[in-house]
Amino acid sequence: MGISDIGPLYCMFKGEPGLRKFTSALSFPKPMYVFNWDHKENAMYIPLLKWKQPFNQVTSQNYSDWNGARAKLEQLAINCPYKTIVIKTLTSMADYTLGQTRKLKQGTSRKSGAVAGKLIAGIQVNEIEDYNAESAALHELIALTKDIKEFHKINIILIAHVVQAEYRNTTTNETHVSRTIITAGKRVGPKIPGYCDEVYHFNLEKGAASFDVDNESGGGGQYALLTQHTGDDFARTTLPLDKKIIFGDEPLYDKWILPAIKKLKADVMAAQQSQQASQPPSQPASFNAPPSTINITDVGTK
Length: 302
Hints:
alpha/beta, 302 residues, nine-stranded mixed sheet, two-stranded antiparallel ribbon, 13 strands
């Protein structure tokens, strides 16, 4: 690993809907490919217009099942012309994966002869075994995007929604409330942030001045994100970023992320040069062989 490896990021942008997670993702290097699981394409036009960035540098493709997305990821693992890939969103992807399991069960039977699937009031619902498919798809997604990031040296951004969850310690009877990733299965979502270099929690900073598209003052607060754990909201960064960034309408990558990457590279380079300067010079190897201690009378004796 060297200084050139600093830069391509594996990120998670998480928070409630409407907090400009995708807007911030659009500020990352382009060309960009978006796995558009929630089928909302209009969200990209206003940020690109405001930042004067060309539309043809963002390719957005709708997906409704895991098989199609996996095939595209496998293609990108071999040939990837993009600098950033965005998964939008993990929450929607999980829903469509479960929908795929229901669809494939329709009209089929189990080995026992019983009809596959489960109906409640005539509506097909998921069974416990279906959540294994969701978990497997999410793990495949992580593995494939990790390979793409490491091989092609590009940015990966996973966008996810959160929900408030309550955890109770059965020994002490203490309760801890935090916000966790929304997926259909309860166990797989909280594990995903552990795979990410950067985890930013998006929220609305109350009391901060806000502005609309015409730069007129508003009163609803300002868009912000956290880069460090607060106890309730998990976040972390490998970059020299502030604990809280109030970004508003500004491009997150150009104004905060890229300068932090450059600073980290400069700091690492300076530290390496300092370490090399403090090391004593290496001594040249001596070619003067020590005098022989072999007695000539011993030569040829056994």
